[in-house]
Write a structure and sequence with these properties.
homodimer, 459 residues, alpha/beta, Rossmann fold, 2 domains, four-stranded parallel beta sheet, 16% strand, globular
Chain lengths: 459, 459
C-alpha cells in the first residue's frame, strides 16, 4: 500500500478563498489591449459595452495579487469542487518509469471540463450587476455547457453561438446545453450582421470560434442589459482558473511534493494559465524553478509557429486587439482536427511568458494524442477529452525520458476534462481512420499576411 | 457557511476493506436458486460452467457476514473511489423543505455509474482463476462500459452482447466500449443458438436484456476458459455493491447523521441493494428503523406489479431459476421507455425483503422522472442518468411531504450515474415529445402466463 493516496481531495476548509492574479508578479507585463478605433490602450470604460464592470476591472487589473472569491461563487465551487489531485500509480507502473506522475482532474462535473470555474464567476458578476442576459460562443461545447449550467443556477437567460460544424457533429452537446435552458444558435447565423456578412460571401461556411465570437459580441452590444462572456484567452478567465493551480499546490504541499515539470494543453490558455499560476509565481519570484510545457495541436500551432503580434480576438474584427501569439484571426484548423484547442490566438499572459522564455511549448499530432488517450483510459480508467490528452501525451513522453535517464522527476499535468462527447473522434482513431495535418509555412503565411497594420505599433 | 460540507470524501484509510453480505443478517433467506434440470437447489458446482469458482461461492454463501475485498480490487477502487456523499443544499433551498437531503454520487467514473464496483471484482476473480475471456450483456450500456474498463485493466478479452435497440440508438456507448478494447455484438445475433432461434422467429427482433443474457451465457459455456458475468440481480453483485452503502454509512456517521429514508432506483437491484445494505442490517438487527423505498419505472414494474415466483433470469431459459418478483422472462418494456431499469425481474434478496415487508416500492412515470432530472441538473449541476433520476423524483416528493408536515427528515438517495449518453431521451423531454406508458393488467398477464410450472413448487 502506498503512503501517498491515489486521490487527494482538499476539505472545504482547505479550498482557496482567493484567486491569484499572475500579472501582479510578472517582471514585464503583457502589452496592453488596444481600442481598435483609437489604437490607444483600452480603458475599463472602453470594455463596458462588452463586459460587465467587475469583469472589465479584472481584465485590466494587473496590480491586485489576490482577489477575493465572492461567497456565492465559493458556495457554487463547493457544489462540484474540490477536484482531485491524482497520483497516476497505474500509469507509472505501465510505463516502468521512476517519474512520479500527478494529474489534476477537472472533468468531474457535467460541463466535462474546468470551464465551469470561470463560468460561475462570470455569471455571478453579471447577475450581481443586474444584467438580464448573456451571450457567448462555444466550439467543442464544454464552455457552452459550463456557462449554461452557471446561468441556469443564477437564472440568467443565455444565448450560445455554437460553431456550425460542432453544432452539426455534436447534437448531444447542443441537447445538454438545451437541458440547462440556454438557446443554441449555429454560427455563422443570420441573427447578426457579422454572421450575415460571412454567409453572403460563403453560404456553406462551417464556422469558426472567431466568427462565433463576433456574433456573440455583436448580439451582446446590441441588446439591452446583455453582455458577452468568454471562456478562455482573457486575463479574467486565467484569474478564475487559478483555482486549479492553487488547489494543486496546496495538495502537493500536503504530500510534501513539488513539480519539476508542469504540463498543460493550450488552446486559448484557460487551463494552462490556471494550472501553472502559483508555480509560475514561484519561478518569477525565485522560489523555485520548475519547467512549464504548453502542449498544442500541430494543426493549430499558435505558440510554436504563430507570430507574436497585435491581432483581433475575433474574425469579425470588432473586439479590442491583443498582443499575443496568433495565426491570424481568420485561421481555421483543417477539418480533420478533432476536439477543441482550435483558437487562432493564445492568452496574452501566456504569450508574454512564452515570449520571455518562462515556458516551453510542444506541438503534437492528433494520432499520437489519441494513442496516449486510449492507453490512459485503459490504465487509469478515465476517458480523457482530446484536449486533455495533449497533456497526457507529453507527460508520458517526459516520463519515458525519465525511464531512460533514471531520474525520478515529479510531473504534474492538467487533465482538463472527459471525452464522452468526442466518441466520433475516438471511433475514427479505433478504426484507423484518423489522420494528421500539419499546415505548411505557406498555409500559415495567409493568416500572417492579414494581421492588422498599426502605424507606429506594428507594420 | 454550513458546517456540514457539500461533499464529503472519505480518505483512503477510511475506505471499507470488506464487503457486507446482507443475507447473513436476514431472518429468513431468499428461496434457493434452482437447477432447471433437476429442480433441486443449485450447488456451487452447478454454477461452475457459468461463473468462476470464487463468484459461484459468493453467489451461494449466505453465512459469511463480511467478505475481505482482495488487495488488488481495493487498489483499483482507489483509482476512482471513494465516491462523494453530497449534501444537496441547493435542492433543499429550491424546494423550501426542512428535510436534509443527501445523495451518494457514483457517476464520477468513465462507466458513468456504480457498475464499475462489481465489474472490477468479477474481472479480478476471473483473472485470478486463470480464465482467458469473459462474456456479458448490456442494455443501456453502463455495465458494458464498466466491465470493458475492468477487463482492459486485468487484460481479459471481453465480448459484450448489447441489446440491439441500444446498439443502434447509442453508437457512442458502443464506441466507448470499443475504446476499452472489448468486442460488441448486437443481440439477438447469429453468433449463438439462442440468438439464431429468436431471429428465425422474428428477424426484426430488437432485443432485450433477457435475450442478451441468453446469448452471453451460451457463448461462455461453449467457449474454453470463458465465463459469464452479470452486472445486477445476483447475490454476488449486491455483495460487491455494498461498498456504496458502507461508504455512505461511514460518511454519515462522521457527520453525526442517520437516514430516516433511504431511496434508490431499482432495475435488477444492484445499486439499491448496495446502498441499503448496512442500513437494512440495522433494521434487521433492531438497531434502527429507517424506511427503504425502491423506485422503479411504471413501464417496467417488477416489484410493484410483478409476481413473486420462480423464473428464469434470461429469455432463452438456460440459466438457473430464481425466486423473485418478475414480469416473466419474455417481458420487454415498451419502446418509448428510456434508459435502463428494464429487466424483467428483481434481485432475489431485494424481492424477499420486499415480500417480508422490510421495504416499500413506488413506480413512477418517465415524464415525471425527467422533470425531476432536469430540475436537479439546473440546481445541483449534475446531469443525472435517467435511472438515477427515478430516485431523485421520489426524494423530491418525500422532501416536499416534509415541507407540508414541517418534519426535518434526513433523506439519503443513490445517484447512480450520469446521463451523457441519454441525450436522445433528454431531447425528447425538452421538446415535449416524451410519452409515458403503463402496461395494462392484460399486458402483464401475458408474461405471467409463461412463468415456469414447477411440480410441487409452483403451479
Amino acid at each position: 500500500m502506498a503512503k501517498i493516496p491515489h486521490r487527494l481531495y482538499l476539505t472545504e476548509d482547505q479550498m482557496p478563498k482567493q484567486w491569484y492574479n499572475l500579472r501582479a508578479d510578472m517582471k514585464e507585463l503583457p502589452d496592453p489591449m488596444l481600442n481598435p478605433a483609437t489604437l490607444q490602450p483600452a480603458k475599463e470604460e472602453d470594455l463596458y459595452p462588452v463586459f460587465c464592470k467587475a469583469l472589465a476591472h479584472q481584465e485590466l487589473d494587473d496590480k491586485t495579487r489576490y482577489v477575493d472569491i465572492p461567497d456565492e461563487v465559493q458556495e457554487m465551487y463547493k457544489v462540484y469542487r474540490p477536484s482531485p489531485l491524482i497520483r497516476a500509480y497505474n500509469l507509472e507502473k505501465a510505463l516502468g518509469t521512476p517519474a512520479k506522475i500527478y494529474y489534476k482532474f477537472e472533468g468531474n462535473n457535467t460541463s466535462g471540463s474546468h470551464k465551469l470555474n470561470s463560468a460561475i464567476a462570470q455569471a455571478y458578476y453579471a447577475k450581481e450587476e443586474g444584467l438580464t442576459s448573456l451571450t457567448t460562443e462555444t466550439g467543442a461545447g464544454q464552455w457552452g455547457t459550463a456557462l449554461a449550467e452557471a446561468c441556469a443556477y443564477f437564472h440568467l437567460p443565455l444565448t450560445v453561438y455554437m460553431v456550425k460544424v460542432s453544432y452539426e457533429q455534436k447534437p448531444f452537446r447542443k441537447a445538454i446545453i438545451h437541458t440547462f435552458g440556454a438557446d443554441v444558435i449555429p454560427s455563422p447565423s443570420n441573427t447578426t450582421e457579422a454572421g450575415r456578412k460571412i454567409l453572403a460571401a460563403d453560404p456553406n461556411n462551417s464556422g469558426s470560434l472567431g466568427t462565433a465570437i463576433s456574433e456573440a459580441v455583436e448580439k451582446a452590444v446590441t441588446t439591452d442589459g446583455c453582455r458577452y462572456v468568454l471562456g478562455s484567452v482573457l486575463n479574467q478567465v486565467l484569474l478564475h482558473q487559478s483555482i486549479i493551480g492553487l488547489e494543486s499546490k496546496i495538495a502537493m504541499e500536503m504530500l510534501d511534493e513539488y513539480p519539476d515539470i508542469v504540463i498543460g494543453c493550450a488552446g486559448g490558455g484557460s487551463n494552462l494559465g490556471g494550472l501553472i499560476a502559483p508555480f509560475m509565481q514561484d519561478k518569477l519570484t525565485g522560489k523555485a524553478d520548475p519547467r512549464f510545457i504548453a502542449v498544442e495541436p500541430a494543426s493549430c500551432p499558435s505558440l510554436t509557429r504563430g507570430k507574436y503580434a497585435y491581432d483581433f480576438c475575433d474574425t469579425g474584427k470588432i473586439t479590442p486587439m491583443a498582443k499575443m501569439y496568433t495565426l491570424g484571426c481568420e485561421f481555421k484548423p483543417s477539418p480533420n482536427h478533432a476536439g477543441g484547442l482550435r483558437y487562432h490566438g493564445m492568452s496574452p499572459i501566456l504569450s508574454k511568458l512564452y515570449h520571455d522564455g518562462c515556458m516551453e511549448t510542444v506541438a503534437v499530432e492528433q494520432t499520437k494524442v489519441f494513442e496516449a488517450a486510449t492507453m490512459f483510459a485503459k490504465i487509469e480508467t478515465i476517458l480523457p477529452a482530446p484536449e486533455s490528452a495533449h497533456a497526457i501525451r507529453v507527460a508520458v513522453d517526459e516520463a519515458l525520458k525519465c525511464k531512460e535517464t533514471g531520474e525520478a522527476k515529479t510531473i504534474l499535468f492538467g487533465l482538463t476534462g472527459t471525452g464522452y462527447f468526442d466518441m466520433t473522434a475516438y471511433t475514427a482513431y479505433n478504426e484507423g481512420k484518423m489522420t494528421d495535418y500539419i499546415p505548411t509555412d505557406a498555409d500559415l503565411q495567409v493568416g500572417f499576411d492579414k494581421l492588422p497594420k498599426l502605424p507606429g505599433i506594428q507594420e
